[in-house]
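Worked example 3. Consider a protein that binds magnesium ion.
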Amino acid sequence: MADKIRVLLSEEEVNQRISEVAEVISKDYEGKEVHLICILKGGVFFTCELAKRLTVPVSLDFMSVSSYGDDTKSSGVVRIVKDLDEPLQDKDVLIVEDIIDSGRTLSYLIEVLKQRGPKSIRLCTLLDKPERRVKKQVHVDYTCFTIPDEFVVGYGLDYAQKYRNLPYIGVVEL
Ligand code: IMP
Ligand code: MG
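Given these inputs, the predicted complex is written out as structure tokens:
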């Protein structure tokens, strides 16, 4: 049977907010090129919508990571399942993520990517759940929406690999 999904952020709200954030990013990177790193799979829808709205030159690369262990046992070490195609040397890197939850994935990833010599490295997320943060040192430069501690789907986010294609952000009512 299909799950019931309550709309948290409508397609219009999400798209409107992405346009606003893209405008801020375009201003901040004026005169530069921005190298977007999309964190697969969840970040893919947001990355495309964001990239289309940026007015500075954009290049794109993709990375896929998975956490070791379950949430309670996580050491904060993530495994790189698919690495980037391009080097980061001297690039202005902007990591694009679907959601920052505990912050474990990003705190590890930022350290790994810093070793590759980018000129700068910033973080942009569609959603942030600050109540769930374990890694308090993760600094998010651009956030579209801060949301309460609820499990959300859509716009790239999944529940058991389903619902990534929903054009809005919803909560699965179990
Ligand atoms: P973190 O390392 O705890 O910040 O993990 C973030 C990752 O957990 C995200 O990239 C998502 O893949 C997943 N995640 C966290 N919260 C949610 C949610 O509400 N819905 C779907 N996936 C989530
Ligand atoms: Mg993710």
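Take a moment to read the result before moving on. The first helix runs from residue 11 to 28. The chain has a mean pLDDT of 93.
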